[in-house]
Design goal:
22% strand
């Protein structure tokens, strides 16, 4: 894939999040929304694009952010799923789950296109 295709952030939450809030979720600065604990998950098939466009870091910097978060705050980095379908299934079945995919199917709540 060329990487030019837009990705989509999907979530199992009521309401929505801004692009800044999505970034905060994925760097461990925003832990809940609407009273629900957020459960971010990375998608290895879309990660480099997502990190570049939404989080504004590369994979090395992202790893460093999470190493510090784990040490300082005891937070675990987002679980890594291997494909869009894995992320979609987990988000659909997990309240508070938030992830990103190359393309979201109907019936999934898209909170951000990037």
């Amino acid at each position: 894939s060329s990487g030019a295709a837009a990705g989509e952030v999907i979530a199992n939450i009521s309401g929505t999040l801004t692009a800044d809030e999505v970034r905060e979720v994925f760097v461990g600065d925003k832990l809940s929304a609407g009273g629900v604990r957020l459960i971010p998950m990375d998608n290895s098939s879309a990660q480099s694009d997502f990190l570049a466009k939404v989080v504004n870091v590369d994979a090395a910097k992202y790893g460093t952010i999470w190493a510090k978060k784990g040490f300082r705050d005891g937070l675990n980095p987002p679980a890594v799923r291997g494909s869009d379908s894995e992320v979609i299934n987990k988000v659909k079945n997990t309240p508070g789950a938030i992830g990103y995919v190359n393309s979201a199917p109907a019936g999934v709540t898209v909170i951000l296109k990037y």
